[in-house]
Amino acid sequence: MKKSLILVSTVVVFILTGCNQATPKPVEKMQECNSIMQGPSWVRQGGIIENGLGVVGASSKAKSSSFKMDIAQADAYSKAANQLKTNIVGTLELLRDSHNDLEKETMEKVFALDVNDIPLSGLKVKDMWSSSCNDDFFVWMVMDIDSEIANTKKVLQKANVENKIIDAAVLQMNRKVEKLRNR
Fold it and tell me: Cys-Cys link to 131, which of 12, 33, 136, 157 (CB 3.0-4.6 A)?
């Protein structure tokens, strides 16, 4: 009885050990297929550029390659609009210290703008990449600083911000550009 119990225990241990060895293979495959880490540097760094606005859009669920590109571009447009809005708010925050007439109401007008109302003229595809391990598709879109400034001006005009504040915001952005160029 004791020998049969040991034999059964040994068989169970071998069966369980065999099952355990088979389990890690899918996990290893998942670790090998990290499309972001295997992608080009612009994918890993989120498309950031020094002199303008850069974003990476992604698509992983569409089956058709042209549909993947459309989804990735839509994702990039959404990210660019959010980033531009964030940059504008940041510029206004910097101006608030030097302009006493920059009211909280002005900031609220910009915050209230729908992302779909943010103009994105000048946003262009710089590169595309498709992962071979899982068919994720990435598109890198960039907007040069001149387009970013022009779009900022349009956003502030849409929000009915006073012209002197718009001019100050554009001046602030131009100073930022000059600092980048003089590095």
Answer: 136
Q: Which residues of 90-111 are buried (b: 16+ CB within 10 A; e: fewer)?
A: ebbeebbeebeebeeebbebbe
Nearest 10 degrees: Cα torsion 53, 59, 60, 61? 150
SS3 readout for 10-66: HHHHHHHHHHHHHCHHHHHHHHHCCHHHHCCHHHHCCCCCCCEEEEEEEECCCCCHH
Distance CA 169, CA 58 (A): 32
Q: Sort residue 46 into left (φ over 0), alpha (ψ -120 to 50) or beta.
A: left
Average pLDDT over residues 48-61: 86
Q: Please report the pLDDT score of residue 9 as a whole number.
A: 52
Cα of first residue to Cα of last residue in the chain, in angstroms, is: 83
Predicted structure pTM score: 0.72
What phi and psi values does residue 144 have, to the nearest 5 degrees? Answer: -70, 165
Q: Which H or E element spans position 144?
A: strand 137-144
Residue 104 to residue 162: CA distance in whole angstroms: 13
What amino acid occupies position 113? L
